[in-house]
Structure formats: C-alpha cells, structure tokens
C-alpha cells in the first residue's frame, strides 16, 4: 500500500475516523429498469456512490448529472471531477440498458414486463494498528432479485450464478487484459479513493449517534385475543445494530418475529422495527437493543395489556414529547388525506415499494391510504413489506455466499435515503426488505469510461442460446478500471 497510505490511515485513526477492527467500504451501485414506469421519483437508471453507508454522489436518467450528496464532496472535489463523472454515468446508463436487454432475451422473458438489473462494485478494507488491510473487491450483477454474474478478482474470472449467464461468462473470461485492470482497480485504485474520501469526510464520518428506543403495543388485527408488540430503534449510526424482543430475558425466535429490516432515515441515521404477536402478559416482555454507541444495552419494557381500541402504549422516558410529535404528525396526515380526497385521489401510485417475493409483479403497488390504515393508529400502519423469519432466511443466504467465497457484507447494507420527494420514491424502490438484489449491496460499476467510448461494453440484444452465437458479437467486458476520479 505504501508508507504514505499507512501514515494517512494512522492520522485518520488518531482523529477518530477509524476504529480498530472496523471495516470501511466504497461501493458504486447501478440500477436499471427495463422500461419507464412513468412514476414520479422512479427512473429507468440510477447510480450512486456509498462510503460507509453514506451516499456521497447520485445520478439518475432524468437529470443526467452526477451530483454530490455530501457537503464535503462538493467542497473537496473539483468541477472537472463532476463533469467527467457525468459522462461516465451516461456511458454506463446506455451500457446497462443494453446488457439488460440481452439478459431478458437470454432468460427468454417478455420485454413487456418489468425487469431489473443491478450492478455493484467496490472495495472493503480493515484497519489494524493503523495499517490498511484489503479485505475484498466486489463486482456483482443481479437480475430480478437473483444472482446472475460476479467477478472472482483473486482468480480473475467470472462466475455464472445461473446457466443463462454462461455465454457472458465465457466471453468475459477471454478478456484477460480487462480483467487484470479490474483486479488492479479493486485492490489499489478503489482503496486509494476510499482512503482519500475518508480523509475528506472525517468530520462527518466520525459522528456516531445512539439509538432512541420505543415500545408500542396494540390489539392484534388478525386475532382479537392477541397483542401486537413492536420495538422501534431509530436515529442510530453506524448502521449495525442488534435488536431483540425478549420474554423473561430470552429472545423470541426469528420465525415468530416480523421485521422491517434496517432502513435509512432522511438525516443519514437508521431505524429498525421488530414486532411479535403474543397471547400472554406484555409485562413479561422487553425490547433489548445493542449498539456501538452505548456501553449498556437499551431495554424498554411493555406495560399491561392495552384496552380494546385504545391504540398504542408507548414506553420510554420521552413519551410525552413523542405523543406531542405524533399528534402533529396525525394532524398533518389528516390534512394531506383530506386534500387527497378533495383532489379525487390524486397522487396515488407515486410512491411504491418492492415486495419480498416477486418484484416485477409488485413494483406498482402503493402504500395503503386511509381506507386501509386507521389514521388514529398511524404508528401501527405497516408501511414496510417485511415478512416473518427474514433474519433466518438472511442468515442462510449469508452462509451460502460465504461458502462460495463471496462477500456477505452486501446483504445487510441498505442505500441511504435520498433527499427530496422525487428521490424518496426511488429509495423505497431499491431499499425494501427483498431489494432488487440479495447479492448486491446495491449499484456498482467500478470506475468510469476514460477511453471516452460510450459504445464500449455494449451488449447487443438477441443472444438467446440457440438463436445466435455469443462469439459472433463483438462485445467487451465492463472495464472496472476506467474510473479513477470520474466514477
């Protein structure tokens, strides 16, 4: 890595930016849709850069301009960085679209349906005693929520996750020079940029926030004899958190828990909600939260059974203040819903979320409005698309990836909340519990097209096995090493 890089990391650690044993990552995530949904805030193509869970830059197919998402990125990076980055993103937008068209034909799917392709690439490091340790480089593709293709950087070869990806694998494996550049980018240039960005954003990156923990109880909707207990931890950073609903100090099994998964807040912090339905005394239960910012776990207990129709029981030292806030939220919600009815339901379909099973079938679903969600019990409304046992399924998924020598860190990472109404819808689309890709942290193409050839890496449609030969097409692998400072 070099003496200069080691010294730089040592200084960063002294300033509190890094912690011994703590991992840092720089990822770029690209998401392409097969067609325009004509929904506000949902774009055919989006790209974003992520540094340790924080969004540092953003691009979409409507504005077609790479923009900074952190004030320190705007201050530190020169204008030509954003100009080159914009051109690189435009090139990748076209490339990903062509690749998605090819995959749709290879999978023998209809191009009339919605399909999603994601590409994530980047690097992860660890610091020990002030020295940088390269952990892994990642370049992965997923199609409609399933693994499709990923790069084995150690052996410089591509691994097909499904039979339909084999033609692409064979073609890209023959691009020896390009794969060598990709390996070099992942192990060296990506790490250099990661360290540089950490230095630029050190004031922001070292700001850690403890979780605020709340407990809610209400009568079960499905069974009037049961009580639904919900534990909410919010406002915490870093993202990693351990939350459990316990009975007599013992955690309730995952298959009995419904979870939202860790999701982003607008201010860059995170939240996590878990719920359980019980038929016995709520006072036997508590909510237990562990986070790196608190020495002792935060524990909240539930009160006695809520009365029928009583709504919520809030446990916590700031209950009074939270109730006031909830009243304000309810008042605003009532006003919005009333205005919505007066406008004949205008606005429906603008906010969407991705489901856990079939993204293509559910991508047009909307958040329930007043007819499906009692405004008086606003906090009980389920705005997620979570399911029971998601933790256990996620663990099995991590074991599967580990056995293949792949990164498992990407499974648990969610993209940060985008600022603004337009980006909020897109954020819901790509950060739902299932997400488009289980195997990808989110979007990654490694650097930029510094050869200026927008046609580079274009994958031509019509490569379905049995119809046309892949070798008859002059298609190159994605050049992961083009980015430098124009990613």
From TrEMBL:
Q: Kindly list the biological process annotations in GO that this record carries.
A: immune response
Where, by residue number, does the polypeptide cross the bilayer? 312-337
Q: Which domain of life is it from?
A: Eukaryota
Comp. bias regions, Low complexity: 384-394
SUPFAM superfamilies linked to this entry: Immunoglobulin, MHC antigen-recognition domain
InterPro entries associated with the record:
Ig-like_dom (IPR007110), Ig-like_dom_sf (IPR036179), Ig-like_fold (IPR013783), Ig/MHC_CS (IPR003006), Ig_C1-set (IPR003597), MHC_class-I_related (IPR050208), MHC_I-like_Ag-recog (IPR011161), MHC_I-like_Ag-recog_sf (IPR037055)
Which Pfam families would you find in this protein's record?
C1-set, MHC_I
Q: Which UniProt keywords apply?
A: Glycoprotein, Immunoglobulin domain, Membrane, Signal, Transmembrane, Transmembrane helix
Polar residues: compositionally biased ranges: 466-479
The leader peptide range reads 1-21
GO CC list: external side of plasma membrane; extracellular space
Q: Which PANTHER family match?
A: LOC571647 PROTEIN-RELATED, MHC CLASS I-RELATED
Protein name stated in the entry? Ig-like domain-containing protein
**What is the scientific name of the source organism?**
Astyanax mexicanus
